What does this fold into?
Amino acid sequence: MYPLSQPHPIGQANPITFRADAILPAAGAWDASPVEVPVIAFDKLTLYFSYDEDAGVAGAGAFDFYIEYSPYSIDQVGVENWFRMALYAAGVMAAGTDIQSNIQREYITYDSIGATAETFVYGPLDISKTVERMRIVARESGEVGNPGDLKIIGVANS
It folds into this structure.
C-alpha cells in the first residue's frame, strides 16, 4: 500500500476521491458526470462512504450506488466503454440435469438510521490490475426532495 496523501507511481493520489462531499442530484436522478479514476496499477481498492441526509425526516434518507469498470484507458469509439458490477446467484444442483444460474447488473442501497452523518466501508474490491478506469454513480433514493450529502473515497494497494 502506498502512504496516504502520497502519489502512486501512475500519478494517482491515495486516498482517491471518487465523489467530493456534495449534495446528491435532485429528484432521485443519478450523478450525471461521475469522476473517472485510473486504477490499472492497483490490485485491491477499499471504498469509504460518508452520507449525511438532508434536513428532512431523521432516518428517512437513503442513497443508491453502482460501480462501473472500463477495460480501456480512454473511451473507444464504436464499443461499450463502461461495465456495471453484477450479482451472481448459482442455481440449485440437481443430478442428471444442467443447472440454470442467474446474473444481473446490480446497484446497492444504503438506508440511513439517524439524522447525523453516517460512514461505512465497502470492499476491498479485487480489481487485480485488470481494470483501467472505474467510477461510482450515485443518487438519493430516500428523500428525493431533500437529497443528502455523499462523499466517496478509495484507498488502493498494488
Remarks:
- The chain has a mean pLDDT of 88.
- Residues 6-157 form a domain with the Jelly Rolls fold (CATH 2.60.120).
